Structure formats: C-alpha cells, structure tokens
Amino acid sequence: MLRNLAILACGGLALAAPKPATDIPAISTKAPRGSEAGAAPTRVSPDPTGPTTHGPYSLSSATTTGPEPGPTTVLLKNDGPPAAPTGNYYNENGKFEAPFQLPFTPGGGKGVNGSNTPRYMVESDYDYASVVLGLHQEFIELDLFNHGVAKFSEQEFLDAGLTAEDRTFLSYMATQEADHATLLTNMLGESAPKQCIYDYPFTTVREYIDFNIKLTRWGESGNWGFLSHLDSREVSTLLVQAEAVEARQQMIFRQWLGLHPMPFSFVPGIPQSWHWTLLAPYISSCPENNTRIAWQNFPQLTIDNLPNPNRVSPNDTKTDEVVGPRVADPSTSNLTAPESCLHNTTLGYDCAPAIAHNRSEPLTFPGRKVFLSWESPGKPVGPNNSYVTTTAAGAPRFVAWLSQINLTYTPLEVTGQNKGWTWQPPNEVYVGDPAVNGTVFLAVTDSDLYLTPFNLSLINPHVNALGIMIAG
Ligand SMILES: *[C@@H]1O[C@H](CO)[C@@H](O)[C@H](O)[C@H]1NC(C)=O
Ligand SMILES: *[C@@H]1O[C@H](CO)[C@@H](O)[C@H](O)[C@H]1NC(C)=O
Ligand SMILES: *[C@@H]1O[C@H](CO)[C@@H](O)[C@H](O)[C@H]1NC(C)=O
Ligand SMILES: *[C@@H]1O[C@H](CO)[C@@H](O)[C@H](O)[C@H]1NC(C)=O
Ligand SMILES: *[C@@H]1O[C@H](CO)[C@@H](O)[C@H](O)[C@H]1NC(C)=O
Ligand SMILES: *[C@@H]1O[C@H](CO)[C@@H](O)[C@H](O)[C@H]1NC(C)=O
Ligand SMILES: *[C@@H]1O[C@H](CO)[C@@H](O)[C@H](O)[C@H]1NC(C)=O
Ligand SMILES: *[C@@H]1O[C@H](CO)[C@@H](O)[C@H](O)[C@H]1NC(C)=O
Ligand SMILES: *[C@@H]1O[C@H](CO)[C@@H](O)[C@H](O)[C@H]1NC(C)=O
Ligand SMILES: *[C@@H]1O[C@H](CO)[C@@H](O)[C@H](O)[C@H]1NC(C)=O
Where is the composition biased (Polar residues) (predicted)? Predict the structure, then answer.
C-alpha cells in the first residue's frame, strides 16, 4: 500500500508539474498540402476583441435592392409529390438485405466506405447561399458577445445578478464565434461575405440577454433548418459540430434571464428566408461588394402583447412593452420594484440568473389571446437598406406556430388593417409535452398547408408576415 503510494508520488501523475507547451511532443497529424504543420491556423476575423462601430444605416436610399438576380425560378407544382426513391426500406426481421461494404459496416449510408475523399466545401448554389447566411449569423454573434462585454460594466452585470466570471465567459463565447466564422469562411472560399456594422436595440443587461435569447434561437434554428438539405454532407458535419456549441450558448442566455433552460424536447428548424427576415433588421451596413443574400425578407409580424420575462406576472404585460419597433426588440427592463421579478427572491417569482427556476406564472399559456399586427410588403430592410420585404401570400387567414417538431395553425381573427388576434394552441408533441414553449416562431399565413420538419420551407409562398415570441 505504502509502496504503491510512493511510486505514485515519484513517477506518477500526482506530482508531475505542468509542462511548458514546447516540451510536449506535438500530436502527429498530417498537415494538408501547402500548410505548415504544427501551428494552428489563424482566425478569419480582423480582431476578435477590437472595437467596431454600431448604429443605424445613415443614408436613406439604397444603391442596390433585392436579392442578386438569378436564373428564372423553376415553378414547383404541389399536387401530391411521390416519396423519395429510397423511401421503401423496411426491415421487418432485423436481417440485413445488402452485403457489408467494409467489416462491421452494413450497406447504405453516404461516405462511409472510403470510396471518396471528403471535401469540406459547399457543393451547390443552395449550399453556398445557406452557408453565406450562416456566416452572417456567426459574424453578428461575434460582434454582439464582444459588444456586451464592452458596453456593460462589471457593476451593470452584478446588478443583473451576473458575476465578473460570467462576463469573462461571455468573452469566451465571442472567441467561439470567431472560430465558427473562420470555419464557415473556409468552406465558402474567397467570395465569403465579410463582417458588417450592426445596430442593436438594448440599453440594459437584461434587455441584452433577452435579445441574445432570440438571436441565438434563430441562429440555431436557421442552421438546423438547412443542414440535412445540403448537398455537401462534409459541410453539414462540420456545421453540426459548431451548432452544438451555439445551442449551449442559447441555453446559457435563457438561464441568465432566469428562464427554464430548455422547456421543450426538440428544437425546430426554420427556412433560410425566416432566418434572414429576423436577422436583417439588425444589420445596418455591409462592406462594398459583400456577397448578397439570396433569401426572402418577409414583412414583420409584431406580437403586441409579448410577455415580459422581467415581470413577476408576465400576463400583466401591457401592449408594446418592448424597447423598439423591430421584430426581435427585447422587453423593457425598467420596471418598478414590485413589478420586477429580478430581485424578488420568493420561489416561483425569482428570475435572477440560475440553472433552473420554477415560475409560478408561466410567460404564456394555452388559450392566451395573442394580439398581432403586421407590416405591408415593400419596406427596405437589412444592410444598406438594400433588401425589400415581399410576400406571395393571399389574404391572411391563419397563424402558424412553429416549435419543437410541430407546425400548428390557429385561425386568425382579423380585426382591422394588418391587425388581428389568435389563441395560443393547447396541442402537445407527445402526451404531456406542450408543443408551444420556449422561443417560438409565428407566421401569419394564407393557408393551413400540412407540413412537417423536412418539407417546412414549402410554407414560404404562404407567409404574409413573420415574428418571434418568448412563450416560456
Ligand atoms: C460506398 O459508398 C457510396 C456512397 O457514399 C456508394 O455509392 C457505393 O456503392 C458504396 N460502395 C460499396 C462497395 O458499398
Ligand atoms: C453600405 O454603406 C456603407 C456606408 O455608407 C458603404 O461604405 C458600403 O460600401 C455600402 N455597401 C454596399 C454593399 O453598398
Ligand atoms: C468592388 O467591385 C468593383 C468592381 O468589380 C471594384 O472596382 C472595387 O474595387 C471593389 N471594391 C472593393 C472594396 O473591393
Ligand atoms: C391573463 O390576463 C387576462 C387579461 O388581463 C385575464 O383575463 C386572464 O384571466 C389572465 N390569465 C391568467 C392565467 O392569469
Ligand atoms: C421605462 O422606459 C421607457 C422608455 O424606454 C419609458 O417610457 C417608461 O416610462 C420607463 N418606465 C419606468 C417605470 O421607468
Ligand atoms: C414576489 O412577488 C410576489 C407576487 O407579486 C409577491 O407575493 C412576493 O411577496 C414577492 N416577494 C418578494 C421577496 O418581494
Ligand atoms: C417546480 O415545479 C414542478 C412542476 O410544476 C413541481 O413538481 C416542483 O415541486 C416545483 N419545485 C419547487 C422547488 O417548487
Ligand atoms: C413551459 O415550460 C415551463 C417550464 O417548465 C412551464 O412552467 C410552462 O407551464 C410551460 N408552458 C406550457 C404551455 O405548458
Ligand atoms: C406533432 O408532431 C408529432 C411528430 O411528428 C406528431 O406525431 C403529432 O401528431 C404532431 N402534433 C400536432 C398537434 O401537430
Ligand atoms: C409534407 O410532408 C408530409 C409528410 O411528412 C406530407 O404529408 C405533406 O403532404 C407534405 N406537404 C407538401 C405541401 O408537400
């Protein structure tokens, strides 16, 4: 016993002093042709901690508008499409139908038998345009996380219940974004877009976190939406590995606002045009010649009685209790002490940062009336005001709720010009799991077309307006 301990103490890990990095033999990896072995590649962003300017775009008229003109759209006819050609595999007895392609490697799958070398580059216009959008998301997150650290002092973080260590952690999240931006840039090549100038809506730490919750939700859902549709499975593989970290960031921001970290079992994917619609209002200008975005900008849908997560009673939220007019502007945080849940330490009301809180009164609930207003198309939005909102939909009739793996429609009661209301639906994904919770996407539509996660983008021609709501 004693001898063993002595051995441990002399030669084992217990007493080993940390070695300087230069003494540790490099792990042997074969460097790709043309690159230097050993040193890690540099990041794409000019200076991940450096200052960038912020604020709205100052010129009133744009030099270019709308997406880059492309070849004519091939019209899609939708009268009961057939299932995909591989859609007939059904294994009824557990016996394999095909020979193994390699030892312990059953037949099927893509890229698992060494017949092709992986190529980590986009492989089609669809891939390219999707990753360009994803890169814009990485760039704004990089800027937004750094900006939070720069704008708010240690004391302001403390007042919101967050420590200096949390603030340091936020900086760390910005470096994760620099890494993601680098990865995506490399998968696009030299025409990859560059970082832009952003215009943010928040003035307090709570509002900042509220905005981050929405922005990281559409970033995450935006990526989930296209990953399995990409031609390049290699690109998709790397994006999943980046997105796994972004999903954690999203959860952290919910915890910082004292919300339940993940009150759902699934996270929905959204079409690229939904992602671009939500993101564009916060980009004020992009560098000259920046690659343009191919996706659609829908008119904005505003939830007039958006529940305020800073209230002890979110159901008491007054209309327009948000800091500004844009689609994801956060709820106001300057409430009076009895109204605010931030310094209320009573269980069920406390919304200070925590791993998990129980809120006695949920932010929203099935049967809650949701009041909506939406813009008409034709508004200039996005970088340099050079994109224009459009819709191909007819008269608005439904509200589509996208959350978890469900798309649910509720009837829209139109009450006036671009105004109406609906009820929050009570449906469940599986028994006991409410379909609507967390940050959900709402669209006003002209139809209740049946769609599932893999064919959701077929909703776009039916969308009148698009919004986002923290439902719990
Ligand atoms: C190897 O995988 C590819 C698809 O990635 C497939 O086309 C090919 O048939 C497979 N080869 C064998 C021997 O199964
Ligand atoms: C957008 O506006 C900025 C600032 O006015 C300008 O520097 C930039 O070249 C413009 N970008 C495009 C794509 O026109
Ligand atoms: C933008 O493109 C034009 C035309 O190709 C070129 O003359 C100009 O130098 C480019 N500007 C930048 C900043 O790259
Ligand atoms: C929510 O507020 C509405 C309007 O004030 C009220 O009618 C309703 O009873 C409230 N519901 C709950 C569950 O508090
Ligand atoms: C909160 O700020 C808004 C403007 O942003 C102002 O209209 C409102 O009166 C303020 N409320 C309180 C309680 O200070
Ligand atoms: C928290 O808010 C609830 C509801 O308004 C109230 O009953 C309770 O006394 C408050 N607790 C504290 C510690 O302020
Ligand atoms: C939190 O809420 C759950 C479900 O509503 C309940 O079962 C649990 O007892 C609550 N926890 C505390 C500490 O109040
Ligand atoms: C959403 O989740 C929270 C936290 O678990 C819960 O309190 C709330 O009741 C849920 N909302 C619905 C509609 O069930
Ligand atoms: C929600 O999605 C699940 C899984 O696709 C499905 O079984 C269920 O019927 C859907 N529920 C509603 C209300 O759409
Ligand atoms: C979407 O997919 C579902 C099957 O999951 C199918 O029933 C539905 O018809 C499809 N919708 C359209 C518009 O093709």
Answer: 306-316
